[in-house]
Amino acid sequence: MKEVVCGLDIGSSKLSAVLAKGTRERMELLGAETLSVRGLEKGAVEDLASFVDCIGTILEKVNAKTKTKIKSVLVSINRERIAARSSFAAVAFSERTNRHVTASDINYLRRQARLLGLRIDEFILHEFPQDYVLDDSHSTASPLGLLARKVQLNSYLLSAPYSFLGNISSAINQAGYGVLATVFSGIASGLSVITEEEKKKGVILLDIGAYFTTMLFFKDGIVRDYSIIRFGGNDITSGIASGLELPWELAEEMKKSSLVLSPTDSLPSGSLVLRRGGSYMTLERIKLYESVKQKVEQFLDCVNEALTRSTWASKIECGIVGIGGTARLEGILEKIELRTAQSVRLGNLKTLSLFRDSLDVQYAAAVGLLYYWFESKRSAHLKNCFIGRNYLERSVNFIQHLFQEYF
Ligand SMILES: Nc1ncnc2c1ncn2[C@@H]1O[C@H](COP(=O)(O)OP(=O)(O)OP(=O)(O)O)[C@@H](O)[C@H]1O
Ligand SMILES: [Mg+2]
Question: Would 250 be classed as within a structural domain?
């Protein structure tokens, strides 16, 4: 059955909303909007009234454009304090004999791994069972029906602080909308930008945003590792603004229109003419480049370190896929390729063919949310307790969630 679904990506610098109708196999794009965010500080709610107003504005725009009335949205979020960690759980069946591993054994192990890996003020956004080890020796991704005396699960969890999720959720409610599910934006973008084959062979999704950069490592079809780097496009803008004593807006414009990061260390030549206030000034390109050089080098070091730290980097066969506004900075992906010796490409929406109209990759997370919704419904395991069309439904889900977790 065809459904109308709205994906809302809450970035630290912009909101993006996509409205589509259809099924996972075929979606018809009804409308897409983007808006500079107000009321957030590095992705967390700072000024509730402004943020509520901002959410209301973008969703009203989508409503007006598509002549629909959205009631609930799927939300993707990104923030510094999204944490990733490994968790383990084990179950022993009997002292002497083997028995077949059942679905309830697997559910028990997954629940234990979630509980053991969870901190008190957190909510688990996503869990990725890595492998099940049978009798300390046989590692498998699907133990169902196999004989064993004991089974250990190694799981990987992505979590976020309750207060952060609660604030986002209540702002959306105050704007007059329900929240169907809350998803990490990297997971959502992964669904719309990366193919299943790339995920199997191994790929890194590098999202270079406004304040920070996230790296999600996929291999064998699942998330294996995650890294966050405290660097984003706004660090480059602030380098230009402070280094050249320019106002922020002009520095931002210079970054987008004139900054080129040469992959080799050859220095740019020539000069630019900029309009500042009522007068014109000339600026040598080399000065523009030098104002950001150090920050870019530090960023490249951080990306390289994240790769060196990860045991999964050497198993990646499809390289790095760059998304996020700062991946458009001229030359940055080439520089990453040279520094890391991984192949790097700019991400595109793989869903493009499903829509009649083309859609820019800046909507990657918002479109990915639609995929997430149809996939989750199909596999029927939406376990997110922040789901529900209204406050009452979400509260019931939340209480059910707590009950299941503790009793
Ligand atoms: N063409 C461009 N060239 C260089 N930088 C760009 C370009 N377009 C956007 N940016 C920069 O990208 C950054 C915004 O990236 P993006 O839109 O991915 O952020 P976001 O999704 O709001 O943030 P996040 O996901 O990190 O919370 C800003 O710093 C902006 O200046
Ligand atoms: Mg983003």
Answer: yes
